[in-house]
Amino acid sequence: xxxxxxxxxxxxxxxxxxxxxxxxxxxxxxxxxxxxxxxxxxxxxxxxxxxxxxxxxxxxxxxxxxxxxxxxxxxxxxxxxxxxxxxxxxxxxxxxxxxxxxxxxxxxxxxxxxxxxxxxxxxxxxxxxxxxxxxxxxxxxxxxxxxxxxxxxxxxxxxxxxxxxxxxxxxxxxxxxxxxxxxxxxxxxxxxxxx
Length: 195
Fold this sequence. Notes:
Blueprint: H1 8-22, H2 30-49, H3 86-93, E1 94-95, E2 98-99, H4 134-143, H5 146-169, E3 182-183, E4 193-194
Antiparallel strand pairs: 1-2, 3-4
Helix pairs in contact: 2-5
């Protein structure tokens, strides 16, 4: 007869260590949730637009065009802090007299809220003037328009709300719930009632 040489405590410690090491890679990150939300919303908008061809959105994206002044070239999950006025900055360091997060400056700072390279996408003629025609003017107006970007973002937020409502009405797994319950009340005559 062989004796079991494995120590259960070592196996427990090893499994806990494996869980702790693999937990950061489980997908619960800002990037994971942003990409999952983007996928859900874009899928919802594409499926809704095919019913009526007048409302079809070709190449819809919430991301700002790289040719726009509003484009932010930094990582969307770790954006640097934009410039702020001194009074607001002081208040954010100590909110209601409480010390702020020690990670407040982790993503760095930027000294501009405008894309540094948007001018390189403009078309210039031989005199160094911006060359405009009707189509280029409309494209530039849409690319640089905060109102148009706000409309795209509002559409995105509306689709997110639709997705949330779909999730709420979808079948959800609840581990540990039961279909049976015991009723104890004053109208019962002593014994338990399983329903």
